[in-house]
């Protein structure tokens, strides 16, 4: 009986040790499941944010549709319609992905709250990682759509560019530290089938103006109708830094293109070499409340359309 008692005690000790080990595993699983539930809540909140973004994009699609309906020329309407259809297709795909992710998240959330039916922790972690990857792809698609909308909404077809450059202090610091030396504006056009152009600015200067001036340049870009246009580009260009206080002290510089310069020949790449003014305005003059307001500067480009033959 003593031998049997010793054996039973050893078995009891082994069972107790195994029980303690299982308790530790259960506690670890409980903590991990708590983390999983937190992640599911974050996924659901991400779904809400994406839905709000899609509502905003839908409103902008409707705005573009109205613009295309009010356009005077048939080809303009068709072009806007194509853009709108592309946006709607992309939005439909994003909506489908969000609905699918939300359904999966809710199902997994319910299973995680049950007893004995929840998926293993590694499997749940794998699914959450998969969801994170899909949300990252959706964010990229949203960014591409937003950029496309900005270009469509800000395009000008009368030879005038109004460039609102925000976050001046941060952007200049990026230029000083060599992270982003120059910035390009959105494209603008002389007319619907005309020259495609943009502006380029060096906030910390370029060439002779490096470190002391803001340098401002004009760029001829490759457009869809270049074969119908006369070359080299010969229109007068006026660059202006706008006075945001009184509007009476705008700083302007004008030039007429040099017909022998490669900057104004028919582009063979996405854009020609920029041409303009390395010493456009000194930092001492620029960085005053007159020209930097709410950490924003306003730059205007005006192309003279006189004697310009339209195709």
Textual characterization of the structure:
The protein is of the alpha+beta class. The protein has two domains: 153 residues, no CATH class; 144 residues, Apoptosis, Tumor Necrosis Factor Receptor Associated Protein 2, Chain A (Sandwich), CATH 2.60.210. The protein is 50% helix and 16% strand. It has five helices and nine strands. Strands 2, 3, 4, 5 and 8 form a five-stranded antiparallel beta sheet that branches. A hairpin with a 6-residue loop joins strand 3 and strand 4. The radius of gyration is 31 Å and the shape is elongated. The protein starts with a helix and ends in an 8-residue tail after the last strand. About 2% of the residues have low confidence.
Keyword list:
311 residues; alpha+beta; 2 domains; four-stranded antiparallel beta sheet; 50% helix
How would you summarize this macromolecular structure in one to three sentences?
The protein has 311 residues and is an alpha+beta fold.
Strand and helix map with partners:
Blueprint: H1 2-70, H2 74-113, H3 121-154, E1 160-165, H4 168-176, E2 183-184, E3 188-189, E4 196-202, E5 213-221, E6 237-241, E7 251-255, E8 275-282, H5 283-286, E9 297-303
Antiparallel strand pairs: 1-9, 2-4, 3-4, 4-5, 5-8, 6-7, 6-9
Helix pairs in contact: 1-2, 1-3, 2-3
């Amino acid at each position: 009986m003593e031998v049997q008692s010793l054996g039973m005690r050893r078995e009891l000790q082994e069972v107790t040790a195994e029980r303690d080990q299982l308790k530790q595993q259960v506690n670890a699983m409980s903590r991990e499941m708590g983390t999983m539930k937190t992640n599911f809540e974050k996924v659901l909140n991400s779904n809400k944010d994406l839905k709000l973004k899609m509502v905003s994009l839908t409103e902008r699609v409707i705005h573009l549709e109205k613009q295309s309906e009010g356009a005077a020329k048939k080809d303009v309407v068709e072009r806007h319609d194509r853009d709108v259809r592309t946006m709607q297709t992309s939005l439909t795909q994003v909506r489908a992905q969000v609905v699918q992710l939300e359904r999966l998240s809710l199902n997994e959330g319910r299973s995680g709250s049950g007893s004995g039916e929840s998926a293993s922790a590694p499997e749940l972690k794998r699914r959450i990682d998969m969801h994170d990857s899909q949300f990252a792809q959706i964010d990229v698609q949203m960014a591409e759509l937003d950029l496309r909308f900005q270009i469509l909404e800000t395009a000008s077809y009368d030879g005038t560019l109004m460039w609102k450059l925000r976050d001046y202090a941060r952007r200049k610091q990026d230029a000083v530290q060599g992270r982003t030396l120059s910035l390009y504006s959105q494209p603008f056009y002389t007319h619907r089938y005309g020259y495609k152009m943009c502006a380029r600015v060096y906030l910390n200067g370029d060439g002779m103006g490096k470190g002391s001036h803001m340098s401002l340049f004009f760029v001829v870009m490759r457009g869809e109708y270049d074969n119908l246009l006369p070359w080299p580009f010969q229109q007068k260009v006026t660059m202006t830094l706008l006075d945001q206080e009184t509007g009476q002290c705008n700083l302007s510089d004008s030039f007429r293109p040099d017909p022998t310069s490669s900057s104004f020949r028919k582009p063979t790449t996405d854009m020609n070499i920029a041409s303009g003014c390395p010493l456009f305005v000194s930092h001492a003059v620029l960085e005053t409340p007159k020209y930097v307001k709410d950490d924003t500067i306003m730059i205007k480009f005006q192309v003279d359309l006189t004697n310009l033959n339209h195709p």
